[in-house]
Amino acid sequence: MYAQMVKTDGTGVKDRAEMSADEQAFQDRIDRGEKIEPKDWMPDNYRRTLIRQIGQHAHSEIVGQLPEGNWITRAPTLERKAILLAKVQDEAGHGLYLYGAAETLGVTRDALTEDLLAGRMKYSSIFNYPTLNWADMGAVGWLVDGAAIINQVALQRTSYGPYARAMVRICKEESFHARQGFHIMMKMARGTKEQKAMAQDALNRLWYPVLMMFGPSDKDSVHTAQSMAWKIKMDTNDELRQKFVDQTVQQIEYLGLELPDPNTKWNDETGQYDYSDPDWTEFFDVIKGNGPCNVDRLAARNKAWDDGKWVRDGLMAHAAKKTAAKLAAE
Amino acid sequence: MKNEWPLWEVFIRGQHGLSHRHFGSLHAPDAEMAIKNARDVYTRRNEGVSIWVVEAVNVSASSPEDKGAFYEPSNSKVYRHPTFFDIPDEVGSM
C-alpha cells in the first residue's frame, strides 16, 4: 500500500524440494514465527525484495509530506497549524525509521534516496494527487492514513525484525494522524453548507485514489504468493481493501456525508460491503508517472536534495575539522 | 562525491530508574548533532529522559552462526536457577 506492486525476486513460490538446505531452514524459522535479524542468513531474493519494499515504504513517507506541507501556511487556526506541522514532522520520522530498517539489509540511505530522485524507485501512487483545499487535509489524514494503518498494523507481524519494530512505532503515531483528519472532517461536515460541500468533494475525489493504495486486484497481483510465504506481506491487496471499505462506510455515514460510490451496499451473504473497483487504467497510468503531480513531487524532492547539499557537506566538514583539532590536542 | 553522514545507534532511557534501551538508528555528521536528531526523531512524545548515541561502526556484536556454541554452556547448569533446589514448605519462603 505505501509499498505497491513491489516486485518479488525469484520465480514464484519455491517448492520445498527446490530449496537448498539453508533456504529450508530459513523458511522453517519463518513458519515457526521467528523474526529474521540483520546478521542472520537470508536468501538473496528475500533481501532484495525487502530492500525494495521498505525503501518504497520510506519514500512514501517522505514524499507524503509534500501534499500536506502544502497547507501548513494556510491552516485555518494556529492550533490546526501546529497539529499539521506535528503530523508532517511524524512522517519525516517514519521515513527515517524505515530507511534505518532498510539499511540493516546492506544498502545506504543515500543510495535509496538517489534511486528515488532518479525515478528508479517508486512511492505510493496516492501522493501523486493534489491537495486542493483545507478539506483535503481532513480527508488525507482520515482516509490515507487510515488506509496506511490497516496495512501497517498487519506488518507489525512481518518476519523481518527491524521492519516489524519500525511498524510498531509507526502504528502508535499513525492513529493520531487518522483521528486529527477525521476531526477536521467532523468540523466541516457539521459546519456551514459550503464547508459540508467541501468535505463531500474531498471525500469524492480521494475515495478511489485511496482504494488504489492497496495495489492491484488479487487476480492481477503477481508478487503476492512468495511475499506471503516469506511473511513480508501479511494479507492480499483485496483483503486489505475490503477491510478498509468495511470500516470506512460507517464513518462516512457518521459524518452524514454521501457514499462516494453509489454501488456500495451491504451484502448479507458475504457479511461485508460490495463496492466498485477503482479505474485500474488510471492506477497503472499514475504508477507509470502520468498522475497529476508525479513531475512536481519528484522535482520538489530533487530541489530539496540539491538545495540541502551545502548543509550536508558543511556539517561534515565541520565535524572533520573538530575531530582533527581534537586529535591534534591529544 | 560521496559524503554520507555516518550512522549512529540510539539508546534512550525511557524513565528514571530504567536502563537505556536501543531505539533505532539515524544519520548525523557528529555526536552532538546525533543527540539533537535523536531528540527529534525518537522522543517527540516524551519517550525519554536521557539519550546515548554510539557510532554504528564502533558496535561489536556476537555473530548468529556462533549462537549454539556461544550460549550452550549455560544449558547444562540448571543449578543456577533457584527452582533447582527443593526446599521443604515448612522452612517458609526463601
Which tags fit this structure?
heterodimer, A: 330 residues, mainly alpha, two-stranded antiparallel sheet, 2 strands, globular, B: 94 residues, alpha+beta, Ubiquitin-like (UB roll), three-stranded antiparallel β-sheet, 2 helices, elongated
Topology:
The complex is a heterodimer of chains A (about 325) and B (about 90).
Chain A: H1 21-31, H2 44-63, H3 65-69, H4 78-103, H5 109-117, H6 134-155, H7 161-189, H8 193-212, H9 224-229, H10 237-255, E1 265-267, E2 272-274, H11 280-290, H12 294-307, H13 309-329
Antiparallel strand pairs in A: 1-2
Chain B: E1 7-13, E2 20-27, H1 31-42, E3 50-55, H2 67-71
Antiparallel strand pairs in B: 1-2, 1-3
Q: Could you please describe the fold and organization of this structure?
A:
- The complex is a heterodimer of chains A (330) and B (94).
- Chain A is mainly α.
- Helices cover 65% and strands 2% of the residues of chain A.
- Chain A contains 13 helices and two strands; from the N terminus they run ααααααααααββααα.
- In chain A, helix 4 packs antiparallel against helix 7 and helix 6 packs antiparallel against helix 7.
- Chain A is globular.
- The termini of chain A are far apart.
- With 94 residues, chain B is α+β, with helices and mostly antiparallel strands.
- Chain B has one domain: Phenylacetic acid degradation B (Ubiquitin-like (UB roll), Roll), CATH 3.10.20.
- In chain B, 18% of the residues lie in helices and 22% in strands.
- Chain B contains two helices and three strands.
- Chain B has a three-stranded antiparallel beta sheet, with helices on one face.
- The model of chain B has no long low-confidence stretch (mean pLDDT 91).
- Classes of the chains: A mainly alpha (330), B alpha+beta (94).
- The interface between A and B is medium-sized, with 27 and 19 residues.
